[in-house]
Each structure stands twice: as structure tokens, then as C-alpha cells.
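ESCALATION

Customer reports they have been waiting on this structure for their group meeting. Please prioritize. Original submission:
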Amino acid sequence: MGRRRKHGRDIDGILLLDKPRHLTSNEALQRVKRLYQANKAGHTGSLDPLATGLLPVCLGGATKFSTYLLDADKRYRVRIRLGITTTTADAEGEVLVTRPVEGIDEARLRAVMGHFLGPIEQLPPMYSAVKHQGERLYKLARQGIEVERQPRTVTIHRLELIDLALPELELDVHCSKGTYVRTLAEDLGAELGCGGHVIGLRRTGVGPYVEPERRFVTLDEVEELIAAHEDPLPVLDSLLLPLESALEHWPAVRLTADAAFYLRQGQAVLVPQAPTAGLVRLYDPSRHFLGVGCILDDGKVQPKRLL
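Update from on-call: job pushed to the front of the queue and completed.
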């Protein structure tokens, strides 16, 4: 059989896409892939259609390292409406229960928020992409089917009150991967005794990429650049971050030419003054990024994921 023909061009990098509301993460990904004429693309963790904000899109070789962004901490700005519980825990669901919002002030709210800091147990919502016997939960939920789910441990690193104007409030959330902010809002409302749901959600950070230190790019901006330039691809490519930027918080290890050669063959190599443990970024003598390695117990650097 012949080799499959590529559709698109080879382009490596990460686009910090500002996903618009009412667009699924996959729809946003496919639009970026088409606009960039890329032959390979992937995103690093779905955002609800209701949500806006950061969806890092990995193009080409960057897809090899997308898992490290999937595993990274996330940051969100969420607006919650207290007093109303919905089927989806957000504004797109049907109203289940309406309760009065009484006796809630800033002191009580902050006290309840404190209960959600650190490791907590969350039950994945039925309207989520978690699979049950090979089927996405949200597909079952749309059929009116509810199945038993197992709680998951997630970590809320920081929960900051930004605004309180009852019956609404706004929070800044820094959390581990796998955290459902809709569930957090629902559980917070339940503990306050009135219920609640998300009416606005924006992801402001994934791993090292945090707003406003990093500027996110909208689909409209990309399309405007294409319309404004006869040859837009070099301009579009200038918006991409190098793929190793996703790992910039890891130590960098520069290899000799010999060490780089043997490492590319899959062998562990000894590097003087390398870190004593953990994951590292690997570079050749010319400072070209080679990939990711891990430090073994004997101090050698073992290749883990290479370009």
C-alpha cells in the first residue's frame, strides 16, 4: 500500500486561541487547522461551548507534547447565579429548582469557599465528555439517561472572590486538571443552601500560559490577517509560540553532540550538572529543542518524548 498523502503543510507551534462562546472546542480546532492549512493539529483540553477563553491549539510536532498541557493546572473566571439549579449546572440547562437567596453575606460566602480549597471530591456531571461503557455521558444525558459515576479527586489551589452582587457572584479559580467548574459552582450553591449555576465562564490560563501576561488570539483576528495579506501564512506563523514554551517551567539540559546522538537512539546519557530528578527539556549544542527527558535514579537522562 502507498503512503497516505498529506493534506496541508508541515508547521510546528502553539496558537493561544481565544475560543468564542457557542463554539465547541473541536469546531474551533478544525477552523484553526483549516486557516493555517496544517496537516496535523490538536487541542489541549475541551472547553464547554458556553465558555470562552484559552484553548491552546498544537500544530505539527507540538501535538507530541500536548499531553503536558492537558495535565497542567487551569485558571478560570466564573460568574455564578445563586438560587437556581439547572440540569446542566449552567445557563443552557433547564431549571430544576428555584430557592430564595437569603442570609448570604461576604463573610458567610468566604467561609463556605474555604471548604473547597485543597483536594476535594467531585462527581463528574452527566453533561460532560467522560465516557461510560464507551459512550460520552452528555450523549446519555440528552437521552434522559443517568448512570452512576465515581467521584474524582481534584485540587482547588486558589479561590478568590472578585465580585458579590447577589444573586450573582464572580470567582477566580486556579485548579488542577479534571476540575469541573460547573460542579464547583453547583456544590458551592448547595452548601450555601440555595443552589446555583454558571452563567459565565472564561478560561484565563493553562499551565504557563496565563492572561494577561500572554495575549490570546481570536478566530476573527486570524481571518482578518488572511484577508489583509496576499501571502498571509508567514504572518499567521508569527502568532505561534515555539512548542517548548509549553514546558518553560521545566529545567533545560544542553547536551553535547555525542550525548545528543546517543539520546536520539533511545539511550540514557550522563550529563554533568544535570538536575537530580524530574522532567527536563533537552537541547542539542546549537540550542535546538530535541524533546523531553527524565532523570533516572543513577543520574542519567532518559529520553521520554523526542521530536
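Sent to customer with the following note: The helical segments are 25-36, 66-70, 106-114, 137-142, 181-192, 219-228, 233-237, 257-264.
Escalation resolved.
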